Structures are given as structure tokens and as C-alpha cells.
Amino acid sequence: MRYIWQHISTITETYDGSLPLAHFLKNYFKQYPILGSRDRRILSAMAYSWYRSKKGLTRNEAGTEIEPLVKNCLSVCNVLLPSFPLDPTPPMAFDIEALFPYNIPHSKGISSHEWLQSMLSQPDLFIRVRKNKTKIIDLLRSQDIPFNFITDNCLSLPNGAKIDALLPPDSYVVQDASSQKTGDYFKPKKNEQWYDCCAGAGGKSLLLKDMEPGVRLIASDLRETILHNLRQRFKLYGHTLPETYATNVADKLQLEKALGGRKFDNIICDAPCSGSGTWARTPEQLYFFDPAVLDKFSALQKTIAVNAARYLKASGRLLYITCSVFEAENEQVVEEITGATGLTLVRSQLINGTGIHADSMYIAELVSEEFVWVHFKSSRFKQPF
Asked: Is the separation of the CB atoms in 128 and 154 below 8 Å?
């Protein structure tokens, strides 16, 4: 156990947050092949618990009650590592507010406390069932893998559930429940022109095509490597490959070179952000967070959205999405977008996933004046939204 302690000490002393913790641990374990699978599991669990809880732990003479996650972590550490330095004698207290000691407003729909509470445990694994639902359920039950229905086609499973070799790969997509819920805003129609301007590996694009295979889709991202992943996923799920462009949407000239004079009915702008709605999965980002990055992200988000909006049809819609819970990346950016483009905010929502152990996301639907006129001119309401 002293050997394990030496390794966890080295990990916490040398890891600086510049890489995702999962990648750092993978590289670290390669350097020490003597570490068995059990050792790697223990070290991974300890490292993640460390970055979840370390900032909230303080010495307390009165012996204030410790949060359950921290208490469990300490008890495990004390059994495995008797010399672990966080021995709760003298008693230790846990101050959840100390995990994030910054006065940064949250979007409406989630409180700072419930968000911080969600940081103390790993979210569930969510899948979107595309087909063969009965077969998927039977296979999960055959292996005693517990699951819950969130919606008709969204299942939650324990994080780390071994489903890769169990379930038919084209029958489901791993996608967080809140990410799936953004599809409520899509409402695609056959032959519409759609542009996913920050597509990544294509989670939202695949959701769109599963909803309406007949849409005409263009997808772009800065990274050609991740667009390659997108194309591979489209092949797996039997969809016609979209046009893809490795381009920087924040650069007007690059975007114009890629898109020319094209115009779109709908644009999905899943903008780069702090990712604060997903930090329960990556607690190292909470631990190493620098508030200065918020100004950089919000400026980048506005630039990307405004540049993309130039390619909307006169009756088009822009769906602005982030996986952030911060007002500075959500409502404030939307206000700047509407001011710079003349688009109108129809509705917005902070999709709070904390109650189902999911991520949290923000989505806003922005439309042109012509869209408002065409869709609401017959409404009996003078102010339809």
C-alpha cells in the first residue's frame, strides 16, 4: 500500500491540468507496467476523488460532519493507505462552497449549490436508442446491467458499464441526456439546409439525421481529425455523409472560403465553452479553473455565432448551444448576438441535468424578423414570445 501511496503522491504533485486527467493517467500507467489492473483502478478512483474534493477539505477542531463522498473516499484511503495524509483525526470539515470560490453568476434554471453538489459524484452513462430497443433491453438484463428510462429512447446506465461488446453498435449512440434534449429544438423538415458549424464528433448532427434523414447537412470544425471521426460515425449509422470542412468559424475569410454564398434554413452553433456543465465528469477542470478564461470564451462564442449567422436564410434559425452553466457564456452572449445580428430570441433554456445525474446544457433559439413574421403573423397574440 505504501507503493500505491507513492504513486498517488506523484500523480497529484505532477499533474497540472494541461491534459485531461484520463489522458494523463493513461500515459502515466504506460510508464509503470508493473501496476496491475486493480492498482490502476484504485489510483484512478483516488485521483478523481482528490480533484473532486480536495479544495473543500479543511481541518476543524469541532469535528464538523464530512460530506458522504469525502467520508467514503477517506475511509477507502485509510484502509488501503494507513499513512494517507487526509486522516480525519484531527476531525476534518468539508466546505462545498470552497470547491468554487468565485462569484460567477449562473444561468437561470440552476443554483450554484445544486451545481456544486453534482460535482461530488460521477454522472451516469446515457445512451440514445436508435433501433432494436427490445433487443437492447434483453441484452442489458442478460448481463444484469441496471438501467432506467429517461425518455422513450434515452437510457441511463451506471458509469463504466461494459456495453461496447454487448450491444449492436449501430443500434445506439452514447450521448448525454441533456445533449439529447437539445433535439427538442431542432424540428427538422425534409430537404432543409442545415449547418452544424462546430460539429465536433457529430453528436448533434447524428441526432438531427436520425430525426430527419432527408435534411441536407454541412458540418465544420477546426480539427480534421475529429471530422474524420464524424464521418466514420455517419458510416456506422448508415447515413449519407455530410459535406465537411475543417475551418475556423471565428475567421470570416476562412468561413467565406468554405461556404461561399450558401444560405441555410437552420444553423447549429454548439460553441466552445468552459464546459462547466460537464465538470462532474472531469473534476480536474473544476480544480484548475481560471476565471480569466470566461472573457476569452464569451468573446469567441459571440464571434463564431455572429459569423455563422451571416449564412442564415432570411427566414432562418440559429440554435446557440453551450455545455456551460455560466450566464457569461449563455444569456450575456445571446444578448450580444441579438444586438450584432438583429436576430430575435424566441426561447432559451438551461437544461439542468443534475436531478438525473446528467450534464447540464444551455440552448437558445434565435430567429430572423422574417421568420417571426411568417410563423407568427396569424397569431392572436401581439407578443407571441
From this structure: yes
Residue 375, classed as helix, strand or coil, is helix
Q: pLDDT tens, 82-125?
A: 444 444 444 567 889 999 999 999 999 999 999 999 999 999 99
Question: Which residue blocks in 237-349 are alpha helix, DSSP H?
Answer: 252-259, 283-287, 293-309, 331-341
| Cα gap 368→345, rounded to integer Å | 9
* C-alpha cell belonging to residue 247: 475551418
User: How large a percentage of the chain has pLDDT more than 70?
Assistant: 86
pLDDT at 70 over 80: no
Count of Cβ atoms closer than 10 Å to residue 88 Cβ: 18
Cα 150 to Cα 125: distance, rounded to the nearest angstrom = 12
How open is the CA angle 255-183-332, to the nearest 5 degrees?
A: 60
- Tell me the average pLDDT of the chain: 89
- Please state the rounded mean pLDDT for residues 255-267: 96
Give CA separation, 271 vs 230, 318, 364, in Å.
Answer: 17, 12, 12
On whether both 321 and 188 belong to a single domain, the answer is yes
CATH code for position 148: 3.30.70
User: Is residue 186 in some structural domain?
Assistant: yes
How far is the CA of 372 from the CAs of 36, 182, 305, 359, in angstroms? 61, 21, 19, 32
User: Which of 156, 173, 190 represents a domain boundary (last residue)?
Assistant: 173
pTM of the model: 0.89
Looking at residue 83, its pLDDT comes to: 47
Going by their DSSP bridges, the two strands 312-322 and 264-270 should be labelled as parallel
Tell me the three cell numbers of residue 58: 479543511
Provide the edge-to-edge strand list for the sheet that holds 193-196.
243-246, 216-221, 193-196, 264-270, 312-322, 361-367, 344-351
Across 297-315, b (16+ Cβ under 10 Å) vs e yields bbebbbbbbbbbbebbbeb
